[in-house]
């Protein structure tokens, strides 16, 4: 418990001193709570000695009233300091986690971690935020109350004090077993919570496919199974705690009886006077209540501890190093993009092996080749979504790892095949390409991306809200809005993952016009699927089997016997690289 309190203090940063002050007020509250018992003891001693007079009685009554008022006052201060600190602390932690996640390699988000991240951010952090400070306040007041009572008992009778300490050892032993069991179950419960979030996200994201393939029964079953598992681990968790709670109550009952017996034995042996006997009896029945209450919170504490583990683990995930300070030169003799002996593996699976190529400035390059050959991986390494295992990726002669990530991102625009629009206005979706752009510049970008006309036909024009993921727009319209965003950003390198899905002829021609605008005066690296795009490229890189199998212009490559010619011939007659321009 102390370890958990230390851990929370350790993570509380600038709120640490506020929390410590709250502990001071908790301690004072604990003192004031027990003050009436101590005053009563004083009264009994004076009455039995016959020295109590009217002035004493008046002072005693005033002392009782003041101690009760102070108790309420200190409680108020402790609660205010702790609860406020808790909510502010976790608002900061969420922001910190957001910044941390932004610096993680993209691979982290594609390896089944989305559910874990969501459940840490919502359920784990929410649980700690709501419980931690209030529980902490209770814990501290129980610990202080127990300490004050045992110390007072020692003052009344060292024998009674020692007896109380022995009984406390039994509480600690039962508490230890209780904590161990609850800890294991808490870990299982929080892990299942993450699995459930994963399953819910997966179910909702895949709803379209689920309906199309009529998989509602199967997919619902997976989700229901997860709900069932969550229910059973929660029941196990509560059931596992019940026997320990019973043991704790047993120790409480037997401990109080033993303390009472000891008190009577001491009185009969003449080791305790009558007034001290009454004094001890005054709070004997409350003596072990604080420690019992302390352990009744232990299940919440173990959940909190497991939740803290998960939060800390997420914070402990390795970020992409962003220590570079090199600037990308405005002009350089070096190629705009260069891969030097690059090798890269996703885990153990090597995808690129010793890949080298260089691309001059302001030209268009097409990456083509069989599915799974490594085209997207090349684009992702250029944008430093991952780091290479060997070799170097250079922009204008600078290794991307030496360039600050923010500068690198300012230098590169990406148009993904799967366009994502935020639940916001169309205007904001475009302007996030350059947040300081004027309205005129945003509209200009929309015109260049050939989306102005369809935007103006919408009920609220640029202020129309887009549904989650851009669902209320057609695929071609969404793609053009994402191109407008890139045009506004005006980065010197554009990476474009050409859509494989076919769109209607009108949309196709609008998208091609938008791409032409986007690429004016830029270096374009396009993962190309359409023969029209490939033929327009200044240079084609055929990516296959983890390397560059061929490179050259369309005319050069088509005249050579090799993988490119075979591909073009095959694809011309099939669905893949269509002849649409
Ligand atoms: N995040 C990832 N984790 C593990 N393996 C991956 C990951 N992304 C891609 N791969 C694997 O790396 C290989 C290269 O994938 P990549 O997406 O680069 O190929 P591609 O040529 O772009 O394919 P496509 O044309 O189908 O998009 C594939 O075998 C793929 O399964």
UniProtKB/TrEMBL annotation:
User: Which subcellular locations apply to this protein?
Assistant: Cell membrane
| Gene Ontology MF terms in the entry | ATP binding
Membrane-spanning segments: 21-44, 50-74, 135-155, 161-178, 250-268
Task: Tell me the protein's name.
Answer: ABC transporter ATP-binding protein/permease
Membrane topology type: Multi-pass membrane protein
What positions does the domain ABC transporter occupy?
A: 337-570
Q: Which InterPro entries match?
A: AAA+_ATPase, ABC1_TM_dom, ABC1_TM_sf, ABC_transporter-like_ATP-bd, ABC_transporter-like_CS, P-loop_NTPase, Type_1_exporter
Q: Where is the ABC transmembrane type-1 domain?
A: 21-294
SMART domains in UniProt:
AAA
Cross-referenced PANTHER family = ATP-BINDING CASSETTE SUB-FAMILY B MEMBER 10, MITOCHONDRIAL, ATP-DEPENDENT PERMEASE MDL1, MITOCHONDRIAL
For this UniProt record, the keywords arranged alphabetically read as follows: ATP-binding, Membrane, Nucleotide-binding, Transmembrane, Transmembrane helix
Q: Pfam families of this UniProt entry?
A: ABC_membrane, ABC_tran
């Amino acid at each position: 418990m102390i370890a958990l309190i230390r851990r929370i203090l350790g993570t509380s940063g600038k709120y640490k001193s506020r929390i410590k002050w709250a502990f001071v007020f908790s301690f004072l509250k604990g003192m004031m709570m027990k003050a009436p018992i101590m005053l009563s003891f004083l009264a009994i001693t004076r009455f039995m000695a016959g020295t109590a007079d009217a002035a004493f009685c008046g002072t005693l009554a005033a002392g009782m009233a003041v101690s009760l008022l102070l108790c309420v006052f200190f409680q108020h201060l402790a609660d205010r300091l702790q609860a406020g600190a808790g909510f502010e602390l976790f608002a900061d932690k969420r922001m910190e986690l957001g910044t941390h996640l932004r610096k993680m390699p993209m691979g982290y988000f594609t390896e089944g971690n989305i559910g874990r991240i969501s459940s840490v951010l919502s359920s784990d952090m929410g649980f700690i935020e709501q419980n931690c400070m209030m529980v902490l306040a209770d814990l501290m007041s129980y610990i202080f109350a127990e300490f004050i009572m045992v110390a007072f008992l020692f003052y009344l009778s060292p024998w009674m004090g020692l007896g109380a300490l022995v009984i406390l050892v039994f509480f600690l032993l039962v508490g230890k077993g209780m904590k161990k069991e609850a800890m294991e179950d808490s870990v299982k419960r929080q892990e299942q919570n993450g699995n459930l979030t994963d399953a819910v996200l997966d179910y909702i994201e895949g709803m379209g496919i689920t309906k199309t393939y009529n998989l509602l029964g199967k997919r619902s079953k997976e989700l229901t199974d997860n709900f069932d598992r969550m229910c059973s681990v929660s029941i196990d968790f509560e059931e596992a705690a019940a026997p320990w709670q019973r043991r704790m109550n047993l120790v409480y009952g037997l401990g109080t009886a033993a303390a009472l017996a000891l008190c009577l034995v001491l009185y009969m042996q003449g080791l305790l006077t009558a007034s001290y006997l009454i004094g001890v009896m005054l709070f004997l029945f409350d003596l072990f209540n604080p420690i019992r209450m302390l352990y009744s919170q232990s299940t919440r504490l173990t959940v909190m501890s497991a939740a803290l583990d998960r939060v800390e683990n997420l914070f402990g995930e390795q970020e992409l190093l962003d220590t570079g300070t090199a600037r990308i030169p405005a002009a350089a003799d070096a190629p705009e993009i260069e891969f030097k002996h690059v090798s890269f593996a996703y885990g153990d699976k090597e995808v690129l092996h010793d890949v080298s190529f260089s691309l001059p400035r302001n030209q268009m390059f097409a990456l083509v080749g069989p599915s799974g050959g490594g085209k997207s991986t090349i684009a992702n390494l250029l944008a430093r979504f991952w780091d290479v295992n060997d070799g170097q990726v250079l922009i204008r002669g600078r290794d991307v790892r030496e360039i600050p990530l923010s500068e690198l991102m300012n230098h590169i625009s990406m148009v993904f095949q799967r366009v994502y629009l935020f639940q916001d206005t169309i205007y904001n979706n475009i302007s996030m390409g350059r947040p300081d752009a004027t309205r005129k510049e945003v509209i200009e970008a929309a015109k260049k991306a050939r989306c102005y006309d369809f935007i103006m036909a919408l009920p609220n024009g640029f202020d129309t809200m887009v549904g989650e993921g851009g669902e209320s727009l057609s695929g071609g319209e969404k793609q053009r809005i994402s191109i407008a965003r890139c045009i506004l950003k005006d980065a010197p390198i554009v990476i474009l993952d050409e859509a494989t899905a076919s769109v209607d002829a009108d949309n196709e021609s609008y998208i091609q016009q938008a791409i032409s605008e986007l690429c004016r005066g830029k270096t374009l690296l396009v993962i190309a699927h359409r023969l029209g795009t490939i033929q327009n490229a200044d240079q084609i890189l055929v990516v296959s089997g983890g390397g560059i199998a061929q490179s050259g212009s369309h005319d050069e490559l088509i005249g050579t016997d090799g993988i490119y010619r075979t591909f073009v011939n095959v694809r011309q007659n099939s669905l893949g690289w269509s002849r649409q321009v």
